[in-house]
Specification:
The structure is a homotetramer. Chain A has two domains: about 5-120, 3-Layer(aba) Sandwich (Rossmann fold), CATH 3.40.50; about 125-265, Rossmann fold, CATH 3.40.50. In chain A, about 40% of the residues lie in helices and about 20% in strands. Chain A has eleven helices and twelve strands. The first copy, chain A, has helices at about 15-25, 50-55, 80-85, 100-105, 120-140, 160-170, 180-190, 220-225, 245-250, 260-265, 265-285, and strands at about 5-10, 30, 45, 55-60, 95, 115, 150-155, 175-180, 195, 210, 230-235, 255. The first copy, chain A, has a six-stranded parallel sheet with strand order 3-2-1-4-5-6. A six-stranded parallel sheet of chain A has the order 9-8-7-10-11-12, sandwiched between helices.
Chain lengths: ~290, ~290, ~290, ~290
């Protein structure tokens, strides 16, 4: 069956940008759960009742829910209960984040043809860009000097670390990246940054800015006291994060736990990434 | 005479950072006009009465004055009248910005040994860094997408244009620089950016972000309507600026006139630049 | 047992640089199989007979052998037979490349304590730097224009592709990277290059320079004829390579099969990478 | 008069590339003095006798002459005497390099409508790219390590210095630029490199690669001995250059005087730069 229409249900600006990007590919697009939206985005609205009639594909938001009961739909006047919606989507093509949560909340959702865009690797990699750029925006706002000429320590060389190191370097910062694996240390050097073993962090020359991207408690009291005392420490790792925030408070080290950056700092890019990932999944389906 | 002490009179955080950087070079440093400052910066305060006794060199702030009468001294409880101060500084070494304004306000100032750090070329060049970074911070805050992957138009390839193009490119943007002179166009290409003649701006493919660095009305109604309709336009040129703001309002083009960025976004770097420039002047004096 | 001395046996300049780098870490170092070496490298020579007495660690060259019988030892007057050497190294610590070949040639080698530095991941990653730089040197020599401003196509985004794309971009080329996996395509874009699906190579706008880094026959007659006709094509994939060289000849497409670049273009860096990898292995041993 | 045809007289491959680039703009193009050229460049040849009949514009080569008598015409069987040619070009539009030399050799040349492309600023700037890239090619060939990770000293921050620093940095080298003027030092830092005062060169940490771009004897015996002993020194300044080559020889410092790089390493780019400059001059003429 050739796909002709999409309904984007719930969500914030990201969802609107995803809808807009889909529309500009030539599809008929509806948004549902946006009755409080005042600006004109040039996209037709529909009610949840009509949604299943109108759409061939349905896109649930990122994140799926904030309260564990209703769809995350900040632009909707009424709350949209995830349990109640399930029945209407049986055998329909539904794109969502947090698929496991969805089916756990209401087993009937398993009857839908569900695709989780949020677990795709290219989705995570693409989101490293708004994450890294968001971290830099935070750094620019919080640090009284310029990023250019500052000494930056990036802990971790995964997706976000790779993009962040490149951007900081591109702004003219001196970049040191700490990692555990020898292969990562070799790659850090090969890509033009200074490398440092994570286990030797305590001996790191004092940085101006510290970015943690690793999902582990790396910045404990000792390292905070010895290395980060005069730095701005930005933790990008999801809760509980990689920084001992209590110790930091006690020591007077300035810390920011910067979470969910993509949606906050660049809803347009985030929405377009959702759209691209959905289209990748559709393309693979056809093959 | 060997210089031993400095008094920094008036000014904002920039002045404090300049004082701190001077102190860390081993000089005795005082700050005057900072009675409202609560944080402890580890720098001794003094009154304007004692200032001339304590110091060998005196540093007036950037900008010198905001009301044309008193020294720019936001941390001072009392207003410091520029006229009244003049007499005490006869034959003393005074570093200031806006020297012409100073001596115009009170001819007695001509009796001091005045050095204007704000007219030095290396001062202007060094400040291009916080200006460019400030412009990028504004862009990150205002533009709903990421700078990475965006199409950026930079008008002008002077000090700020050069640094800004490099930083935008370093973040992963597609950078087009518009300039008038053929030599500049050749340099733009040689340094790795796309170049475009200023006179052909009307034909520029639609950018996401526009940065004006040229001191001329480049973005008139026609170009705003044709090129910038969906862009965020950031004007870095000092008043009246390079954008027809009225036309922009009428056309619904989003514009930001971003002025005096260095002091606002990076007081630490700005202060250190003041300090470096003063030390350059002292060094030349000795030769 | 604390290691005090190393003997580097056979090999070319890489081996000499590895020996020198080891010596500058404070170890006693000997080189063996260098009787034809005229320059003074400041490293003591020894004979293969004395070698086992003098050394705690023994380093065989990269590559191990060229004729499958004797050690690769271009600076040695006599051929060093791998079979005959085996007995002397029983229970000794030997670092080599191509371990499998070694033990296949003479099972007695299995009695030695053998470490293969050439199979380590950090070794391969570190060698991506001289490989990529060597490829650029070839491009500069063969292409009549500048790399700056040229359109470069890089096929594959593995170790070499990542470093090569960065360097070409750093020189001011327009870089397009072709890859198969969606995650790689996302990373290519996130790191600031243009991405293209390998399967759509036929539609690639004509490049000036083509670099193949992928170990598969990607550049067959069709793509050579349609995309690469006016390009210089540099194949970095080991034999048989990724280019149909016969077709290229027939079509008049200029191709270079650039193999074993690290040892040729940067023996110093290559030798230092061998040394670093050996020291990594020793360090892990101690843990 | 609308220009329809060009004759390129004498010259090497640069001239051929300039001719080809002109032809691809839609003009009728002839080459003269290329009877020894065997390859087919798809450009019509003509004799010097027919030249003035066939062309509206005439392009003399870069350099104009090597022996001071005949045109620099390596692809010509017969020598083309500059004196004898003069008469035919009276009142014709002639583009050349070294205009002063031309009219000094034969005053009759003053009767032609002469444009010197070689003195234009955009010509010099554009040629900084092949010069810098040529210097890097030399460095890659001569230095046994990789440029990536090496410590590079660039003396001078003029046209070539600016482009060279950017490219070296883009390859992953650690770049220190030495300059005299404070404004240049500030710009060096603002663009992301380490800066150093020329007068303090003696204290420069030992570099691996040294590039001189300044037209002054900067690398005398003392600095060669103290700073450059283990470096490869590449001098890009025109004769006599900026290096004391005798002292270097005595001290055993490896030096390369790399002159006229654009024509040697990138005739295609060099030719295209000649063409672009000529077209700029024609465009200005029309205004």
């Amino acid at each position: 069956m050739k796909i002709k229409s999409f309904v984007f249900i719930g969500g914030d600006k990201r969802q609107l940008y995803a809808a807009k990007a889909t529309q500009s590919e030539g599809y008929k697009v509806y948004i549902c759960g946006f009755d409080k939206l005042n600006e004109d985005w040039g996209i037709e609205k529909c009610s949840i009742k009509n949604a299943t009639e109108l759409g061939d594909c349905f896109v649930l938001p990122m994140p799926l829910t904030k309260d564990g009961v209703s769809l995350n739909a900040p632009f909707s006047n009424e709350s949209m209960l995830i349990k109640e919606m399930a029945a209407s989507f049986a055998a329909r093509r539904v794109f969502c984040s947090m698929k496991n949560k969805l089916t756990a909340m209401e087993p009937q959702w398993a009857g839908a043809d569900i695709y989780d865009y949020s677990v795709r690797e290219e989705f995570a990699i693409a989101n490293a860009v708004p994450s890294a750029e968001g971290a830099i925006e935070v750094a620019m706002r919080e640090y009284p000097g310029t990023v250019h000429g500052s000494r930056c320590l990036v802990a971790g060389f995964g997706r976000i670390g790779k993009v962040l190191a490149k951007m900081l370097n591109g702004l003219g910062a001196e970049v040191v990246v700490a990692a555990r694996k020898r292969a990562d240390l070799a790659l850090i050097f090969a890509l033009g940054y200074k490398s440092m073993e994570m286990s030797e962090l305590i001996a790191c020359p004092k940085p101006d800015l510290v970015f943690n991207t690793a999902p582990a408690l790396i910045f404990g009291a000792k390292i905070l006291a010895k290395v980060c005392r005069d730095a701005v420490v930005i933790d990008l790792a999801s809760a509980p994060g990689g920084v001992d925030f209590d110790a930091a408070k006690r020591l007077g080290v300035r810390t920011i736990h910067a979470l969910s950056l993509p949606g906050k700092v660049a809803p347009k890019s985030s929405g377009e990434i959702i759209k691209t990932t959905i289209f990748n999944m559709l393309e693979e389906d056809e093959q």
